[in-house]
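Budget justification, computational time. The allocation requested in the original proposal was used primarily to generate C-alpha cells for proteins on the priority list. As evidence of use, we reproduce two of the resulting records. The first is shown immediately below.
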Amino acid sequence: MLNTTNSNNYEYITKHLEIHILGGIKTNKLESLRVTISIQKVKEYNILRQSIDLYNDNQVEKFIRKIAERLEIGTSVVRKTLQELTHELENYRFLLISNEEQANKIQIKQLIASEEKEALDFLKKGELLKRTNEYIGKSGVIGEDINRLLMYLIFTSRKTNNPLHCISLGSSGTGKTHLQSKVAELIPEEDKIEITVLSANAFYYFNRTELHNKLVLIEDLDGAESVLYPLRELQSKKRITKTVVHKDSKGTTKTIHLTVEGPVSVAGCTTQESIYEDNSNRSFLLYIDESEEQDKKIMQYQRRASAGKLNEQAEIAAIELLKNTQRVLKPIKVINPFAEYLELPPSVFKPRRTNSHYLQFINAITFYKQYQREKKYHSETGEEYIETTIEDIEEANELITEVLLRKSDTITGATRNHLENLKKYLLENNQTTFTNAEIRRRLRVKETTLRRYNKQLLAENYIRRIKNVKTKSYCFEVVDIDEYKNLKEQINNALNTCVSRLSTATSP
C-alpha cells in the first residue's frame, strides 16, 4: 500500500523493494506523472535515485533495466512493482484533485425553514425599502443613507437580465472601499467575486457560466486598469470572447474561442473620475459623503467599537437576514406599464444611456418587491412576470435624484463639492469675492488642487476673475450662487411632473 502520511516522502514497500517518492506529486498536469524516486532492496543500503515520468514508456523501460542491474534483481519483479506503484499514485492523485475541488468549491447555503420564513416575511411587509435601509444601518454601515440603499439595490439587480453597475467616488481616505465592502457583506458569498489585482487575460479563463448573475467587486479601479475593457464588454454585451491559438496533444495548432457569459453587476472605487469616463457612462456614480457630520458619525462609531459598546450580535443578525432575503429572491421578468410616460429632465447629459439606467433602476426596485406583487402570465407565451407600480417609480425618483443631478452637471464631482463648499463659505461670511490664498487657508485646499478646480470652474463659467478696484489686485467671484439649487429643482419638477401625469393617466 502507498503510505502518504508524509506529504513530501511517500512510501511504497513490497516484499522485495522499498520505494520513496520524494517531494510528493503534482496535480496540475494529468498528461504526465513526473516523480523523483528513491529505490532500494528491502533491508539493504544500495540506493538508486531518479527523476522520471512514469507515463513515458521508454523512460520506464530504461529505468527498469538500470534498477535490475544496479540492485541485482529481476526485471519482471521491478516492472510489476513500478506498474503497481503507478496505479497507486494515479488513484491518490485523483483523490487529491477531488479534495482540492471540494475545498475551492463555494458552498451554497441551504436555508432552513425558519430562516426562509423570516426572509420571506421581511420581503412581504410594507415599507420594504425603508426597513431595508434601517437593517443596512444595523449591519454596521454608518451614514450614507441614500448611497447605501442605492448600492444595495444595484447589487440586487445582479439577479436580473439587465444588471446595474456603480462606481464610488471620493477623496482618498473618505471610506469609498469601506462602504462598498460593508454593503457587499450583505450579498451571499456564492454570488460575488472580489478582485484586488487581475490580469486582462484572466477574465477569459473563467468557466463559461462562472460569472453568470454575479456581483464583481473591484477594490480600486486604479489597480485594475487592464481588466476595464473586458468588464465594459461584459456590461454592454453581457459576454466576452477571445480567440487564442492552442496546440493539442498531437502538437497540431488550432484556433479556439474562449467565451465567458454574463450578465454581471460591476462595482468599483476610485478617486479619479475623469480617467474612467467609459466605465462611468455605464454606471451609477455614487459620491461619498465627505461632510463634517459624516466624519463625526464614523468617529463616534469607531469610539463605541473600541469601547466594546457595539451590539455585534445584532449586526451579525442584520447581515444574515439581508443575505437570506437575497437568497430567496427568484429570477422573474419585470414589466413597467408606465414606462412610456416617464421622461428625464432635458438637462441630463447622455440621455439615452441615463434613460436606460433610470428604467432599469425602477425594475430593480420592483424585482426586490417581487413577493408583494401579483404574478401574471403572458397571454400568448405563458411567461410569468410582475408589474411595476407608481409607488416603485416614486421611490426610484426619490433615490435617484442625486444621481441625475450629478449626471446633469458639467463639472466633475470633486470640483462640484469644492464649489458648493466655496458657496457655503461665502454665504456664511457675507462675501461675494474671494482670493486663492484665502480659500487655501480657510477651506484647507492644497495649491495644486485649488488650481485644478479653478481651471475647470473658469472654463465652465462657474466663477470669473475680476479686478479689485481698491487694491488693484485680482480676485474671483461666483457667477451664479443658486445654479445648483435651481438645477436640482428643475430635476425634481421634471420627475414630479411624470408622476402626476401617471396618476392622471391611470385615474378612472
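The second record produced under the same allocation is shown here.
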Amino acid sequence: MTHTEHVDVLIVGAGISGIGAAYYLQQEHPGRNFAILEARGATGGTWDLFRYPGIRSDSDLHTFGYEFKPWRDEHAIATADKILAYLRETVTENGIDRNIRFHHKVLGAAWSSADAGWVVDVERTDERGEDVELVQISANWLFCAGGYYRYDQGYAPSFEGQERFTGQIVHPQHWPEDLDYTGKKVVVIGSGATAVTLIPSMAPTAGHVTMLQRSPSYVLPVPAKDSFANAAKRLLGDRRGYALTRRKNIIKQRAVYTLCQKYPTAARRLIRKVNASQLPQGYAVDEHFAPQYNPWDQRLCAVPDGDLFKVISNGSASVVTDRIATFTERGILLESGRELDADIIVTATGLNVQLFGGMTLTVDGQPVNLPEAVAYKGIMLSGVPNFAFAFGYTNSSWTLKVGLLCEHFCRLLKYMDDNGFDSVRPVFDDPGIATLPLLDFAAGYVQRAADQMPRQGTSGPWVMSMNYTYDADMLRNGPVVDPALRFGSRRAARNSAQTPQLVV
C-alpha cells in the first residue's frame, strides 16, 4: 500500500452533495486544499448512475438545485439529463473537476488523536475497474457525501418461482442499455417514485404496462413547469427570480408537510379528490390510490402534469393491487388467483441503505459501531473527531439541508482556525436524553436498515431535524460552539506535556 498525498479535507462522493461541499469549501476557505474521491468514473452520483426510462426529480429544481446557482430551465420537475448537465456545469464553472479522483473507492479510515488526522485506505482502479491498487491518503477532515444507498446493488427481494419465468427480470438500478420493450407486456412491481416514473415513460412504447403493488402509495400531480418561477425569471432576472421562487417553494413544501402531519384526514381527502379528478369516471380510487398510512408518513410521489394518470386513463397502463403468490413461466400468479402475463418484469422494489459508502471507521484503534453513535446537528457523529457527513431532507428537497450543513461546516472550520484548534468531536454524555432511530420515516428501505444506522437524540443538537426553518436558524445563524463539542490542539497538548509541573 502506498501513501499518495495529504489534503486538508477529503470529500467522499462526487454527486450533488459532494459537489456542493466542494463549492462551499473553496468559497469560504480558499487556502485549504481538498480532494473528492469518487468510486465510479463520472460525476453526478444518482443522476449518472440510474439509466431507466424517464428518470427525473421528484422535487422542484428551484429547491433541489443549489442556492448559489440558479436553475434556468423552464421545467421545475426535470429529467436526469438536465440535472446532470446542471451539476457538471457547476463543477466546470468552479474548477472543482481538478480536485476529483475517479475510480477511488474508500474502504476504511483510521483517526489518530496523536496526529490529529485521518489515514484513509482507498482502492484505486483503472477505467475498466481492473488493475486494483491500494493507496492511502491522509486528511485532517473527512466529509462523507456519498448519499444513503448502496450504488452497486439495489434491493431485490426473492420471489417464489422467479427462476421459472422465461422472460426478462430487470431492476431499475441496473437497467440494460439495450432493453427493447416495444410492444411487450411489462409488469412493474412497486408503487414508489421509481415505479410512477417508469410507467408513464414506458407506456407509449410498450404493448401494455401494469403497475403491481402490494399496497398503494400517495401520488400527487404537480405542474412540470412552475409558471411563477418562469414569470419571476423574466421580470427579475435569473438570480433574483430564482431566489424568490426558492423562498416561495420552501414555504410551500413546509406548508404541505405541516398540513399532512397536523390534519392527516383532511389531507387524505384532498389528495383523493385530486386523484379522482385525474382518473376515469368510476375508477377504483380507494383500491389503488388510498394508502393505509397517513400522508407524508412516507414520501409523496409527485407525477408531473399527472402523466401517470393520463396513461391509466388512455388504457396503455393499469394498476393492480394484490399480493404475489408465485412467478410462473408466463408472468405472475397473484394470491387472488389472477395471473398477469408478462414479457418483462421490472422489480422497482427499492434500494439498500448504506451510509458512508460502506467504509469502516476507527478512532485510535477502536472500531466505530455506527448504531451506538448519535448524530450531532445532523452533520457529525458522537465520539468521531473531524468527521462530517451530508444527509438531506426526507420530507423536502434533499439539497436544502445539504447547503445548510456545508455552511455550518465552513463556519466550524473558521472557528477552529481562529482559536488554534485542529480537532473537534461531539460527546453524547447526557444520560437524561433518550435516543431514537436516526430517521422518523416509515419507508421500507429505512425500516430495513434502522438497526444499522446511528441514532438521534430527543433534544438539543442531537435531534435529526427535518425542518428547514429550524435548521436555517441553527446551522446558518446559531453559534458554532456547543457544550457537546470538545475541541483539541496538538500544539497545546505538546506544550502542556513539556511544561514542568509545579509540585507543592
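A brief technical remark on that second record: The radius of gyration is 24 Å.
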